[in-house]
Each structure stands twice: as structure tokens, then as C-alpha cells.
Amino acid sequence: MEKEKVSFIDRSKSVIDIKNLEKSFGDYEVLRGIDLEVYQGENVVVLGRSGTGKSVLIKIISGLLKPDTGTVNVLGQDVNSLNPKELEKLRLRIGFSFQNSALYDSMTVRGNLEFPLVRNQRNLTKAEVNEQVESVLDAVGLLQTINQMPSELSGGQRKRIGIARTLILKPEIMMYDEPTAGLDPITCLEINHLINEVQQRYHTSSIIITHDLTCAKMTGDRVAMLLDGKFMRTGTFKEVFDTDDERVKTFYTYNFIQ
Ligand SMILES: Nc1ncnc2c1ncn2[C@@H]1O[C@H](COP(=O)(O)OP(=O)(O)OP(=O)(O)O)[C@@H](O)[C@H]1O
User: Fold this and answer.
1) Whose Cα sits closest to atom 8 in ligand 1?
2) What is the CATH number of the domain that holds 82?
3) Per the domain annotation, does 170 fall within a domain?
4) Gap between the Cα atoms of 170 and 19, Å rounded
5) Residue 117 falls inside a structural domain
6) Distance CA 27, CA 25 (A)
7) Residue 69 C-alpha to ligand 1 middle, in angstroms?
8) What angle do CA 178, 181, 184 make, to 5 degrees?
9) With 0-12 CB in 10 A as exposed, 13-18 as middle and 19+ as buried, what is 11?
């Protein structure tokens, strides 16, 4: 049975605030006036067909690409005016769960989780590291895998450990890029639940990029649909898809929904 999603959103605080963002590569205008506000504690899903600029948007939010025009404010800071050191500091407050963020095959699950922690917080005692590794593994429901190698885990378990590795640095914002891609339907559901559990347990705000409408419906407090370089519809899942607009109906029809 589908679990009820409970969100604690503070609409008086925005963690991401994007205004009139434009980005072109040569003559190709990828983003043509994007406005997006993500509130504290909110999951926002960005939906759009391949090549519509979803990854470009994430890169601009994290300061990896510069916009041509517009402002991007993340956790109270204007991303475009930050120097490389300030950007690095800001990025530590953002957790990235990307499709290609693979685990280190030669390390156990414990080793994979200790690695970012020890690299970024050098003053922790061994007991503190251990406590944090066990806590985050418990949060993703995989404490029993602590001494296993990544090769011994299923695809879904690896995904969960990847999310745990991001969570261990206690990010305020999570960015999920195609979190359910390549997973079977049951594992997809587990990952969708995990995204919601992370939101509740860690009070994170998230941007979730996906083509998967089940994922959008289950995890998104709000859904923003990117088309022709703009958010053509934004609202709850129902608000976005309850329309006669043929382009939205086509997107819905060609994406399987449970
Ligand atoms: N650095 C770059 N230089 C030139 N063109 C780029 C660059 N980065 C992205 N693009 C172009 O911008 C467009 C949007 O790319 P983007 O990767 O954001 O799409 P996407 O919506 O994430 O697609 P997908 O769902 O397939 O991952 C594409 O046409 C891509 O070729």
C-alpha cells in the first residue's frame, strides 16, 4: 500500500531562488527564462524530456556553469558572485546523488561512508565516525551491509548506499538526478520512499530530476515541467497533469504510471 507523504514545508524560507535564468550554448537557447523557488523542507521535481536542460539547470544551481542572465540564490548566497573557495563551501551544504556517482569498489560499505566524512571533517574521533556511519546506514535501512563490498550488493542497495554517502555530510539541499533510472519497479518504489524518508528525517529540501512519473507523483510536493526552455507548468502533480494541453498529455501518455 502507498504510504502517505508527510512534508513539513516552511514557505517563509526559500533555500533556492532563481529569477529569469537564461542559458545558451552558441545559438541554442537551452534555458529561456526560468523562475524557481524551492522552500525549506520541500521536494521539487523537475520533469522534462531528454535534452530540455535539466542537467544544465542543476549545474547552474551548483555553480558549475554560469548563466547568461538571471540570478541564482542558494542558501542565501548569490552563486554567481562567489569565488571558487566560497563555492566549494556552499557545495558542501548540497548533497548530489547522480546516476554516475559510483561507489569505490575496493572499499567496504563502511569505507565508502567513512571516506567523505574523514576527508571533510578531520577532527572527528574514531568513535564519532563510527557513530555517524552507523546512523546514516540505519537511516537507509542497510546497517547489516556495513562490512560488505559494493559488488555484493544489489543495484537498489548500491543506490541507497550512494545516498547514505551523500547524507553523511548532512546536506541542507539534496539534488537527485534520475534517482530511479535503471532500477526495477519495486526497487524504484523503495527509492521513492527513501527520498521521502530523507526529507522527513533530515529536513532537507530537494530537487529531483526525473522522467519517471511515479517518482514525480510520490516524491514531489511540487512538480515543475520544463518545455522549450521554460517551466510551462508548475504545481502539485495533479495540477500539472490535470490539463487539456496536448504536450502535457503526450508526456503523460508516453511515461508509464502505476
Ligand atoms: N557544455 C555544453 N556545451 C554545449 N552544449 C551543451 C552543454 N551542456 C549541455 N548542452 C546542451 O544543452 C541541452 C540540454 O542538456 P541537458 O544535459 O541539460 O539535458 P537534460 O534535460 O538533462 O537531458 P537528459 O534527460 O537526457 O539527461 C542539450 O542539447 C545539450 O547538448
Assistant:
1) 56
2) 3.40.50.300
3) no
4) 27
5) no
6) 6
7) 18
8) 145
9) exposed
Print the domain residue range for 255.
Answer: 11-93+207-258
pLDDT given for residue 258 in this prediction: 47
Q: What percent of the chain has pLDDT over 70?
A: 97
For ligand 1, residues with CB inside 6 Å are 25, 30, 48, 50-56
- DSSP annotation of 4: P
Residue 154, in any domain of the structure: no
Contact present, 203 and 41 (Cβ < 8 Å): yes
Q: Which residue has the cell 530537487?
A: 207
Give φ, ψ of 153 to 5 degrees.
Answer: -100, 155
Query: 228 CA distance to ligand 1 centroid (A)?
Result: 13
CA-closest residue to ligand 1 atom 29: 51
Task: Say if 64 falls within a structural domain.
Answer: yes
Q: What is the pTM of this model?
A: 0.92
Q: Which among 22, 23, 54 is the best mutation to test ligand 1's pocket, defined by most ligand atoms within 8 Å of the CB?
A: 54
DSSP state of 103: -
Strand partners, 174: 95, 206
Site to probe by mutation for ligand 1, drawn from 21, 25, 99, 228 as the one with most ligand atoms within 8 Å of Cβ, is 25
Express each pLDDT in 210-251 by its tens digit.
989 999 999 999 999 998 899 989 999 999 999 888 888 888
Query: How many domains are contained in the chain?
Result: 1
Residue 96 Cα to ligand 1 midpoint, Å, equals 18
Give me 145's grid cell. Answer: 551491509
Q: How far is the CA of 64 from the centre of ligand 1 (A)?
A: 13
